[in-house]
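Supplementary notes for students who missed Thursday's class. We covered one full example, reproduced here. Read the sequence, then the structure, then the short commentary at the end.
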Amino acid sequence: MNKKTRTRFAPSPTGYMHIGNLRTALYAYLFAKAEKGDFILRIEDTDRARYVADAVDFIQRTLKLAHIIPDEGPDIGGEYGPYVQSQRMDLYRKYAEELVEKGHAYRCFCNPKEKESGEGHGGYDRACRNLSREEIDRHMENGTPYVIRQKMPLDGETSFFDVLHGNITIANEELEDQVLLKSDGMPTYNFANVIDDHLMKVTHIIRGTEFITSTPKHVLLYKAFGWELPAFIHLAPVMGKNADGSTSKLSKRHGATSFDDLTKMGYLPEAITNYVALLGWNPKNTNQELFSMEELISHFSLEGLSKSPAVFDYDKLGWINGEYFKAMAEDAFAKLARPFAGDLPAHLEGKWPYIAALLKTRLTRLDEIPAQIAFLISMPEFDSSLYNNKRNKVTPEKSLEILPPVLELLESVPETEWENDILYAKLNAHIEATGLKKGLAMWPIRISVAGQSVTPGGATELLYILGKENSLQRMKESLEHLKNL
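Structure (token representation):
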């Protein structure tokens, strides 16, 4: 009978979740769910010097927003808790002492500062590795502080199999006698994670390639206890594009790199999760790029993972995010987007749902909204070059001919009829009556009220949004500028 698949995400609360962390959590979650297994959240908070007070809450909120829902964890509980390492201290002491008894670890009474040679073995010369029983007892009676170190084999090799990278072998002489338990009783990461993974029955460990060099130490601990090894999957890093075209590990200099930063910019959590899933994973037998969480789970397999680094592409994320916007209901999008618009004049506030509907298919992220609607709030500085359009054969001179009769027509439209459909019908009838081409006529109308060439919405849509008074005022001012050229 096969074991139930159990994966874990085990972040340290020393900062906030960047994209690499999120991807690790997502892949561990997707694999567990694809295999009908369990996904565990465990907080590895033994590095007290770098502990960030609100980081645990932040991690949990991020996972919730990303729809990565643990089956077991600090706030959920479970059979193998507690799920915070600082609440499991007695366990680590017990297992460290067991290793000492078995001869796989030893008490080190050295003053670390006096023993840092800076050469090999982590800077430690193994002075306490072979102390006599008498020397150990004397130190213990005197209350000499000590750490417990792992007794590494001095020769030979340690190998393990990685699902992505195959067999990996490291010479034992390269492994320092690492500290397992600090003098204050705190376990090190390399020790605590092995104990916890075993006791929590984790079957697959999914983490970054930076842990490959530590894995032989973990393997030796599993073997020292006589425990079965889990499967190891070390994910290639996420890279960012540099200005010169090269790549380096994704960092702040490449732009927003945390889930929180991206959501504040107006990327949807679902779109971020969708994109992050594709950073190093290719679904088999489909070219699909937009996935719900349920679809990701149904398609996910370890075989689709790549051992090559993935490059974070903001343009691709923007495209995916834009597709999610397009799929949203207009009222839902308008509500979601409204905070990004900031303070609006009263005449625009009442037309926000209409404005939002025009923006919905044009945005890649929500923080683009202020720039998109700035011209509606304040008319840009007059630019005569905007009245040149070769395709529609528009010139400033031609615009000066077209606009006055249009202005006269619009002045005759009652406020009660100032709506897009009515305005379009009236202008269309005027254009047909004058024999003008629609593109030639509509271009200067739109430019005269917008003051810019690219706008969300055409001429009559903008007239409706701005309202009769504002529209006519803008058109009159534009005409004056054209006359003074």
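Commentary. The chain is about 45% helix and 10% strand. The first strand starts at residue 6 and ends at 9. If anything here is unclear, bring it to office hours.
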